[in-house]
């Protein structure tokens, strides 16, 4: 009987050590115990009423403000006061030639004008923690332009970049990685179709992506329909075992996961030459 108890105790201690090891590894990897999502509300600043309503979405939602727009400064100050994260939503030239608005980056700019415009747009929004692209289906596919962007961001080491991925040909995050700019990419657009049912379906797709990968980023807009759906859906997150985090935390989370995976991957074996 005593030997049996010793075996049970030894097995219990062994299982406990495995559990502690797994917890330590998860902590070292920056892993969350649950899948995480970040939600960015773009196009803030042009519409005061919609912007105010969007700021009432619960939880650590992130808000991206268009530079030099009528309500951007006021709403960014309010967002920060309400402990919401603030980003710059930087206009970039689109393949379709859509109107860009003030502060836009285009391919015809000189390097000096490009970087000066970037800095002026950053200065126009208070409490900025990072930026993502508004449109940019043309600009973000050009390595030269994105090199200038990342060089400009190197002057602001506290900032991160999120590629909105408005084109499959984007090189945004690739160039961010080359210049060691903390970065991530959008997974799901929530409201290309503004009907509540469509937004709800896209939100469910975001959760599925997060459960599969461990994380996902959704981008929406300050539409009344989007705000209503998110107010409902975000109250249900805890019951689904998913956590909402700010964009900056998502960038760091993905970065720590990538570093852990790289460090834990086995080193490639060197092929031995059989010849003398």
Report what the structure shows.
The chain is of the alpha/beta class and 276 residues long. It has a single domain, classed as Glycoside hydrolase/deacetylase (TIM Barrel, Alpha-Beta Barrel), CATH 3.20.20. Helix content is 45%, strand content 17%. It has 9 helices and 9 strands. Strands 1, 2, 3, 4, 5, 6, 7, 8 and 9 form a 9-stranded parallel beta sheet that branches. Strand 7, helix 7 and strand 8 form a beta-alpha-beta unit. The longest helix has 27 residues, at 2-28. The chain is globular and about 50 Å long. Mean pLDDT is 88; it is low at 3-25 and 268-276.
Question: Summarize this, please?
Answer:
Helices cover 45% and strands 17% of the residues. It has helices spanning 2-28, 48-54, 72-81, 111-124, 143-154, 172-178, 196-213, 224-233, 247-264; strands at 36-44, 62-65, 85-92, 128-135, 160-163, 183-185, 188-189, 215-220, 243-244.
Number of helices in the DSSP assignment: 9
The end-to-end span amounts to: 61 Å
CATH C-level category: Alpha Beta
Order of helices and strands: HEHEHEHEHEHEEHEHEH
What fold name goes in the CATH topology slot? TIM Barrel
Describe this protein with a few key phrases.
single chain; 276 residues; alpha/beta; TIM Barrel; 9-stranded parallel β-sheet; 9 helices; 45% helix; 17% strand; globular; disordered C terminus
Helix and strand layout, with pairings?
Layout: H1 2-28, E1 36-44, H2 48-54, E2 62-65, H3 72-81, E3 85-92, H4 111-124, E4 128-135, H5 143-154, E5 160-163, H6 172-178, E6 183-185, E7 188-189, H7 196-213, E8 215-220, H8 224-233, E9 243-244, H9 247-264
């Amino acid at each position: 009987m005593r030997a049996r108890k010793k075996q049970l105790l030894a097995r219990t201690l062994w299982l406990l050590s495995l559990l502690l090891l797994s917890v330590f590894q998860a902590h070292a990897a920056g892993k969350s115990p649950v899948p995480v999502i970040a939600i960015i509300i773009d196009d803030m600043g042009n519409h005061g009423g919609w912007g105010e309503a969007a700021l009432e979405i619960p939880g650590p939602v992130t808000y991206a403000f268009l530079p030099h727009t009528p309500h951007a400064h006021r709403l960014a100050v309010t967002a920060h006061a309400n402990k919401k994260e603030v980003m710059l939503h930087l206009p970039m030239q689109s393949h379709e030639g859509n109107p860009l608005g003030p502060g836009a980056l285009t391919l015809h700019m000189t390097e000096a004008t490009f970087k000066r415009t970037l800095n002026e747009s950053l200065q126009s929004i208070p409490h900025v923690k990072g930026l993502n692209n508004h449109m940019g289906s043309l600009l973000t596919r050009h390595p030269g332009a994105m090199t200038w962007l990342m060089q400009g961001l190197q002057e602001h080491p506290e900032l991160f970049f999120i590629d909105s991925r408005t084109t499959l040909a984007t090189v945004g995050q690739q160039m961010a990685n080359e210049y060691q700019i903390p970065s991530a990419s959008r997974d799901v657009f929530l409201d290309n179709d503004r009907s509540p049912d469509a937004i709800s379906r896209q939100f469910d797709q975001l959760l599925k992506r997060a459960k599969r990968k461990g994380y996902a980023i959704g981008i929406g807009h300050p539409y009344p329909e989007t705000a209503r759906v998110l107010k409902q859906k975000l109250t249900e997150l805890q019951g689904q075992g998913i956590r909402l985090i700010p964009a900056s935390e998502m960038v760091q989370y993905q970065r720590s996961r990538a570093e852990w995976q790289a460090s834990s991957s086995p080193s490639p074996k060197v092929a031995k030459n059989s010849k003398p």
